[in-house]
From TrEMBL:
This is Xanthine dehydrogenase FAD-binding subunit. Residues 1-176 form the FAD-binding PCMH-type domain. It comes from the Bacteria. The lineage of its organism: Bacteria, Bacillati, Bacillota, Tissierellia, Tissierellales. PROSITE patterns: FAD_PCMH (PS51387). It comes from Peptoniphilus olsenii. Keywords: Flavoprotein, Oxidoreductase. It is an enzyme of class 1 (oxidoreductase).
Amino acid sequence: MYDIKKVYEAYTIEDIIKLRQAHPKAILIGGGSDVLIKIREGKMAGSELISIYLCDELRGIDILDDGSLRVGALSSFTTITENDLVQKCCPTLGEAVDTAGGPQLRNIATIGGNLSNGVPSADSATTVLAYDAIIELQGANGVREVPATEFYLGFGKVDIKADEVLTAIKIKKESYENYHGHYFKYAMRNAMDIATSSCSVNIKLSDNNIVEDARAAYGVAGPTPTRVFEAENWFKGKEFNDENMKEFAKKALDELAPRDSWRASKALRTQLLYEICYRSLKEIEVKYKGGQNAH
């Protein structure tokens, strides 16, 4: 049974904002793949909910006039994976969300909800960071844009104000064009499991195999999804070869803070974080040398 005090239905973004102002303690619910589980477990028992699932303004995947890819917050993981624009511009995002749960969960889980939870194991979070995405929010004072690198404030805490709703994720053309990416998720099972550790990498290479730009983001390597800016800067200008890939994966560990938990020890996670970064880079090398447009 679900112990829910009351459900308010929102049909437009304006409805959401007004309901958030009128019921500041109410919890937003989209697909419900996380919220309903927490209610059933008793963690959110007796909550008021604002359902945004019928707000079609939050759906849709489009290319904007400036070439940016805009993914509506209520886009399901299945929709993202199968979308032609995502496959063309940011295929690693589709690959990442396709690792979440099973088909039933991916059909209902939304990218907005996955990011709003603020948990470091979220399958979309690392790739959104690796694409240098922008989080679009809307509240009583209008639209606000927050770089994904500034969106996570702590474990389970994100930069969403009391009257705001996450409306979309935007990835600029210059952030995806000519980039090659890969997402690597390590979990105890091959499917339907939360990440023990994860890594998403995007690399931009020159014609002579020199790294022009590098972005790497990690999940379950600290209290929030984490970019490794110092290691990224070190990699720029280096040849994209095996030795430098290993050194990059090693340097990235200095900026990460894995911990002991029942899922894995700190020592195991540290080794995993090195390995999955290195393997992601090797996958990119295969795609790049194979002539695939891996972005």
